[in-house]
Amino acid sequence: MVISCEKDFQDIATSVVSNTKFDTKDTIIDVEITNQQITSVRADGLTIGGVLGQYLLGVYNNPNYEKIEASMVSQIALDISNIKEAAERVYGADTTIVTTIDTVFLKLPYQATLTTGTTSEYKLDSIIGDQTKPFTLNLYRTDTYMSRLDPTDPSKASNFPSDKTYQILPGELNSQVNHQFVPNAKDTIMEVKRRLSNGTVYQTDTIRLSNNNPFGRVTLDETKMKQLFVDQFDTPNFESQSALEEYFKGLYIQATGNEGSLIAFRLNTTDNTLRPSIEVRYTKTVLKGGTTVLDTIQKTNSFLLSNFSTSVYKMNEKVFPNNGNIILQGTAGNMAQVKILPANDLTILRNKNWLINDASMTFYVNQNIVGTDTIATPYKLFLYKDGSPKSQIKDVLSEGPDAFGGTLVINSDKPDYYTFKITDYISDLLNGESNYNPTLGLKVSNPSDIPTSIVDTLITNYNWNPKAVTLLNHSNVNGTRKAQLKISYSIKK
Known about the structure:
This protein is mostly beta strands. It is 8% helix and 40% strand. Strands 3, 4, 5, 8, 9, 12, 15, 16, 17, 18 and 19 form an eleven-stranded antiparallel sheet that branches. A hairpin with a 5-residue loop joins strand 13 and strand 14.
């Protein structure tokens, strides 16, 4: 159990007892860490404010980890402005109104940062993978009603897992089937030609987002979208949000392929121009006698992907290595289980009557894995009690998430290790204040893991962080870089 006093371990600040009546020592305690497959995670956001912090779209295929094809399923929010015929001018006899679609497309605003020293050049954020390679994108209409309440128990929220199967109505909505999507930081404007019923261009509009933020776009089938949207605007299907949800149950944005990149989009920003949406631009040409143009009515509508949205993660099963490696991958990838202080060892340590000054658990990155870099490696990991229910370790609540740790340490521009401070947790176990010592869970951190208060002790099953890392396990072949628990303690002389 106790291996040795530790000499080469990373220096960690401690509140050591300094007194001539005490000796202070360090020791390394054995741990056991094993791979654990994640089947699915919760993907609906219903219990954390109704919306996930990020929605992933695209493909990430790193040979060291599970390939992920991330798709989005979303209701659309009703845009009641400027769609009802009753709000338009009434024309005389012998007039007809011809509706022409100018453009209809899916708008996907990127998360982007202005390049230093410029006012118009952006760098795309929150993307991993090969941004030069396309992934395949198709849009469908779903026939699955996305209920917020559990049909079997309306007092509870529904639970939509990341591997849920949705009923898809036949026929792609995008104009080009199997659209090849490549993110581009230079896509900051889009020109739209406004046309009369005879095809004549009467005006050209330029679409820009706030601060000229770049955005992706997928052109939709004009005929289908005219039938599904524009021709329905003056019907009961668009009278209310609930009516729209019954008529158009959801939009399925499906990403497939073996290469490309994985992009994170935000649906909860307060700036609507930076939220994904279906954009409809159309013109109503008022004709007298079938040929003379009396009036031209421009129409613009934005239907935000919101109200209720979920994620779908399609991941291939990965064979776990037997070479001393532990794989951690976000979304529905892989976690690890960590066992410390089995019952017999705990009894022995309790009898020593140590005064615990500091306890920390460190996990080292396997830097020999090809492709390990600071971009695709998780910035933070999370450690918790993997019992039933899954719950927070005391130090997260007593010391705060920052002191608890788990942040990636980088040395010589390489990902190096993660350290967790679990002093209170270990102290309670060794002094007998707590007897609850379940297996610990180790996973890629997600913002939803952080407790919102000291009574927020349960772990929620969310993860939209797609990054991955390979760690060295507890085997002695890893030397000083093996997974280990270090305890600093004081004893009476």
